Amino acid sequence: MDLQSVVTVLSLLVGVIGILLQYRQIQLMQTASPPKRSTSKLWWRAPAVVALAALTVLNLSVLGIAIWQRPAVAAFSVSGWGGMGLPEGRALFLTAVAAEADPANRMMAIAYHYAAEMDVDDLKELQKSALFDIRKGPQTMIIRLDAKFLDEANSGKHRAANYTLVIMPHSVERDDVTTFRRLRELGGTVVATMVGPT
User: Which among 6, 81, 106, 140 is least surrounded, fewest beta carbons within 10 Å?
Assistant: First the structure.
């Protein structure tokens, strides 16, 4: 619960307690000096009670708006990415964290070098991990690199790589994803894109 919600709840408690105290005070006043006409049913019309009730409604409205506008918890997050060594050579990795399992989709990590010479959606030289079922919790995907990508990294032409986490329907296969544009045509989605070392 954030600070705004805490303040709102505390204000509501103050308002409710104030109304109860005002009601109790009116009861005590009636007991001490009974009025000429009964006001037991009119305690809620006292100015203090009306003011406290208005404060309570206002705070409820603020709390409702805060809850309504609060962004949903992200279904995915990325907890790490970068270079790694494998027995067969250099590779990259991306660790994704899923908030819940998603049997209808799979996820994949993609890495690429981008020099802003074309629309990134049409870039074809994508380094891709295997496809992974989406399970709750962290999953590390390894991206094996082709010779051209390694040459660009080793020569210093590209000192950083772009890392992207994508999800796609279970029916889509790894080799179907030739570009990001094609990924979207197949119903896939780019979840996150980062820049990091190769």
Answer: 6
Q: Are 186 and 176 in contact (CB under 8 A)?
A: yes
**pLDDT for residue 138:** 96
**18-to-91, 96, 121, 191 alpha-carbon distances in Å:** 65, 49, 60, 49
Give the 3-state secondary structure of residue 77: strand
Pair 67, 26: CB distance under 8 Å: no
Between CA 116 and CA 177 the distance in angstroms is: 21
> Shortest CA distance to 196 belongs to which of 110, 108, 131?
110
Residue pointed to by tokens 């660790």: 95
Structure confidence by residue, pLDDT tens digits, 31-41: 766 555 555 55
Q: Around 190, how many Cα atoms within 13 Å sit in the side-chain half-sphere?
A: 17
84-123 residue pLDDT tens: 888 878 899 999 999 999 999 999 999 999 988 889 999 9
Choice between 132 and 88, residue whose per-residue pLDDT is larger: 132
Cα–Cα distances in Å, from 137 out to 89, 151, 168? 28, 34, 18
